[in-house]
Each structure stands twice: as C-alpha cells, then as structure tokens.
C-alpha cells in the first residue's frame, strides 16, 4: 500500500512510489511473473517536455530501458559518481550499475536553465562484492564472510583510495577536491565495454538471434527468428558460452517463453546443466520438426551468468564470443558467434575506468 500526506496531484511535484507484488495466478516455471502497465500522463497542460522514471532496487524490466538513470546526489557538480564492478570480475560493470549522463534542467531554486547542464557521469568505477564482517548478503566466494554489493559498496572503496592519495600528499586539506578527482581519473584503468552493452546479435544460416535487454531471466530478452525465405525448419539451436566464461541456469523450469508465432512452450525441449545437475556452459533447445519455420519468431529467457558471482552480469554484451549452432530439419548445421556493438574506453557506464590505488597514490 502507498500512502503520503503530500498532495502531489495538486502541486505537480513528482510522485515517488510504489510496491507491486506478483499476481499469484501467473506462474512461469517455478517463479511468479507479472507485467504491469504504468501510464504516465501530462496533467494541467504544464510546460514539461520530458518524462523520466527510474526503477530502484529491482531488476524489473520495462519498455523504456537503457536510458540514463543517474540522478540526485550522484549527479552533483561537486561530486564523483561511482559505478560498481565485482572485485572478482573487474573488467565488467555490474548489470545494475546506473548509466549516464545526467541532464540538469533547473537550478537550485527550480528555475529553468537557459541551456541544459549535461554532466558526464559516472566518472569512476570501483569494486563491490567485497567481504565484510558484519553486513552483506550472499557469499559467492565461499570464505564464510558476507559480500557487500551495489554502488553503495563501490563508492566507499573509491573514497578509501582518495583518502590514501590525500595521506600521501600530506594529509587533510593538502589537495583541493578537483585535484583529487583529477588524480583518480587520470590514473584509473580504462574499461573497454560496448557503448550499448545490452545489444548482442548472431546469425547462423537462416536463423538469427538478438538480445536487446539486460535481464536474461525475462521471457523476452532473447529473440530467435527464422528468415522468411527459409526452406527448412529449425530443429535445434545450441549455445556454448565457454568463451565468455558463463553458465546457464540448470533448472529447466526456469526457462520461459514470452511471445511466439510458433512453436509453443510444449513444442520445445531444452537441455542444460550437467548430469549431476550443476550449471554448465551449454544450452540446447530442441523444436518439434516443421514448427519453427520461415518467418517465425520466438522470445525466451533463462539466466546465464558468471559462476564467480551468480545471477548477475547479464547484459547482452557479456555473451560476446558465445558459439551458436543451428540445425535444420534436413540435417544442415550452421554456426556463428555472438557479437555486440563496438567497444569504447570512456562511456556512459564506466567513466574514466576502474580506480587504481597503486597508480593514484604513487603516480
């Protein structure tokens, strides 16, 4: 339930809410799944020309994903926004780490700026998922200590490196904030990731794959299509994620389908995991012959993740190098590898890169 004493509808101030629980009658595999339609309307014919909404502390997908989402104090002009990367996989930002830039339209008094102030955030990346002795959640590294994830964990790591830089420079007040920030930025290790990390594609024979989301468990993150000119139906599609070092969820009940012109859920048989039920890098989808044919399209979802961390790092670009094998009903087999967009070293997810304590303290 949502309740507030503020009359936001009268004042046109932003609304901040809400909690939505799954509907008990929408069971997909062994998990509940629900789509909600949220309509945002422009009221009272106000001057607003932009709409922005952000889903916090959730992996909830939407039709308006992949837009900048950094706001508030993280976008302050005198601050540094810090993205997160799991310490065991330092070359890839966390899938929940927010995207920049931040566009400021109003001053502190609410007056519209003559020109929008576009701020290039985040500026830095720092480690999360480190051990704590008292706070955290899962224990993916299995050392008995809880691991603290999130940009809330990465920010103090970056601050700690900043404190070491200050100490080496002579202590508190020895460096202006701008100089300290510049030191951290210029000594950071650049992270090369795709400019659009949620996009990945592959084409093998007459079948094509596209990912255009960042939540592989969602039932429409993967899209498989058969070309309209295809003369044979697809009977199997296999994925080998050994090269990117990812594994698939071994529970076949977690496989879900969003939309399909044909085949349906009952026409697909999947094989994943090892004989002992452990996760593996192989997923094969078998189709009833003659159903997945020319012009048909299928969307599906299943977690694929780095075993060092668990079910995260799910952007499409993480599957780069995955081998896709397509088998047709006449026995012909085609192979291709998943590719993503061109890499950039300074982008909307990583800024100048991963803070480097050695170089920052002893440049």
Characterization of the model:
- The protein has two domains: 67-194 and 349-363, Peptidase S8/S53 domain (Rossmann fold, 3-Layer(aba) Sandwich); 199-339, Immunoglobulin-like.
- The chain has a six-stranded antiparallel β-sheet with strand order 15-18-12-11-10-22, with no helix packed on it.
- It has 363 residues and is mainly beta.
- The longest helix is centred in the middle third of the chain and has 19 residues, at 151-169.
- A hairpin with a 5-residue loop joins strand 4 and strand 5.
- The protein is 10% helix and 27% strand.
- The protein has four helices and 23 strands.
Assembly type of the shown chains? single chain
What structural category characterises the helix and strand content?
A: mainly beta
Low-pLDDT windows of residues: 24-32
Largest sheet: 6 strands, antiparallel
The general outline is globular
Strand order of the largest sheet: 15-18-12-11-10-22
Strand content: 25-35%
The total count of strands amounts to 23
Number of helices: 4
User: Tell me, what is the CATH class of the largest domain?
Assistant: Alpha Beta
Name given to the CATH architecture of the largest domain: 3-Layer(aba) Sandwich
Order of helices and strands: HEEEEEEEEHHEEEEEEEEEEEEEEEH
- What would the CATH topology of the largest domain be? Rossmann fold
User: Terminal Cα separation, in Å?
Assistant: 53 Å
Averaging pLDDT over every residue, what do you get? 85
* Proportion in helices: 10-25%
Q: How many domains would you count in the coordinates?
A: 2
Q: What's the CATH superfamily of the largest domain, by name?
A: Peptidase S8/S53 domain
Nearest-angstrom radius of gyration? 23 Å
């Amino acid at each position: 339930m949502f309740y507030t004493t503020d009359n936001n509808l009268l004042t046109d101030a932003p609304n901040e809410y809400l909690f939505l629980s799954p509907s008990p009658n929408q069971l997909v595999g062994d998990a509940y799944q629900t789509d909600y339609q949220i309509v945002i309307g422009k009221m009272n014919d106000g001057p607003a020309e932009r709409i922005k909404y952000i889903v916090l502390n959730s992996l909830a997908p939407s039709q308006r994903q992949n837009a900048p989402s950094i706001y508030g104090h993280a976008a302050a002009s005198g601050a540094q926004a810090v993205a997160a990367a799991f310490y065991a996989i330092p070359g890839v930002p966390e899938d929940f780490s927010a995207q920049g830039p931040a566009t400021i339209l109003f001053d502190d008094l609410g007056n519209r700026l003559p020109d929008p102030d576009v701020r290039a955030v985040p500026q830095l990346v720092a480690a999360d998922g480190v051990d704590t002795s008292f706070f955290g959640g899962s224990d993916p590294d299995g050392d008995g200590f809880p691991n603290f994830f999130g940009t809330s964990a990465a920010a103090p790591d970056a601050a700690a490196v900043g404190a070491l830089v200050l100490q080496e420079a002579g202590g508190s007040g020895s460096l202006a904030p701008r100089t300290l920030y510049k030191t951290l930025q210029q000594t950071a290790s650049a992270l090369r990731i795709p400019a659009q990390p949620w996009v990945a594609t592959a084409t093998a024979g007459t079948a094509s794959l596209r990912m255009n989301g960042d939540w592989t468990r969602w039932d429409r993150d993967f899209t498989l299509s058969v070309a309209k000119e295809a003369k044979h139906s697809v009977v199997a599609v296999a994925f080998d994620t050994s090269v990117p070092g990812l594994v698939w969820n071994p529970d076949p009940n977690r496989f879900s389908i969003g939309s399909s012109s044909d085949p349906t859920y009952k026409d697909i048989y999947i094989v994943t995991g090892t004989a002992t039920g452990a996760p593996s890098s192989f997923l094969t989808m078998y189709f009833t012959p003659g159903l997945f044919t020319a012009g048909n399209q299928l969307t599906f979802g299943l977690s694929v993740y780095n075993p060092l961390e668990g079910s995260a790092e799910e952007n499409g670009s993480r599957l780069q190098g995955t081998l896709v094998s397509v088998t047709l009903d006449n026995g012909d087999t085609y192979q291709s590898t998943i590719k993503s967009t061109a890499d950039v070293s300074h982008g909307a997810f990583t800024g100048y890169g991963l803070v480097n304590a050695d170089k920052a303290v002893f440049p």
